[in-house]
Amino acid sequence: KLGGRIKPKRSISAIRPLFLCQPYCNNSIVKGNFKTIVQLPKYVDPNEWLAVNAFDFYNYVNIFYGSISDFCTPRECPNMSAGSGCEYFWMDGQKKTSKVPASQYIDFVMNWIQTLINDENTFPTKDGRDFPPTFVQTVRAIFKQLTRVFAHVYHSHYDKMLSLCQEAHFNSLFAHFVSFGREFDLLDKKDIVPMQELIDIMDNNGVLC
After folding, report:
1. What's the domain of life for this entry (predicted)?
2. Degrees (nearest 5) of the Cα angle 82, 165, 145?
3. CB of 81 within 8 A of CB of 154?
């Protein structure tokens, strides 16, 4: 006003997400990369290694999400999203898709994974029980859903991670997750698109293997 130019407002979509900004994108509790951590140890069955790590990633993601879940409400997160233009729909056992709030979607994910882990036919724990032929596909499906949880937390709740001083731990968990997924071909390229910029930063920093 007063004869001057009105500065156009910056669109919300043009604002760079916090998790891609310095210094947060470089915060980590791990120095170096995860190569030696994710490699299959000698004399360990590959499926056992996948099972143990899938269980651990599920638990850690569940713990981190639990720390910010009070802010992930149907009002604040009416859909399961990961940034502008990325929305996930839940598919039930009858292959019916539905739009649900992020909190409900993530609750479905965690319950679904817990059910798989508790199923002796899928995650055998007793001597003499073999892993099913479809076990790797099951782990890939678990990684797909956990990737979506990571993406939602990064895009919608990273400010809460910063407030709780958890970003370095969360970044390290994500780097470990991606490194393990790469090592055993568990991640589909289209599933990591919402997190590709952060993955590129981690690659450039030599964090990922």
Report:
1. Eukaryota
2. 30
3. no
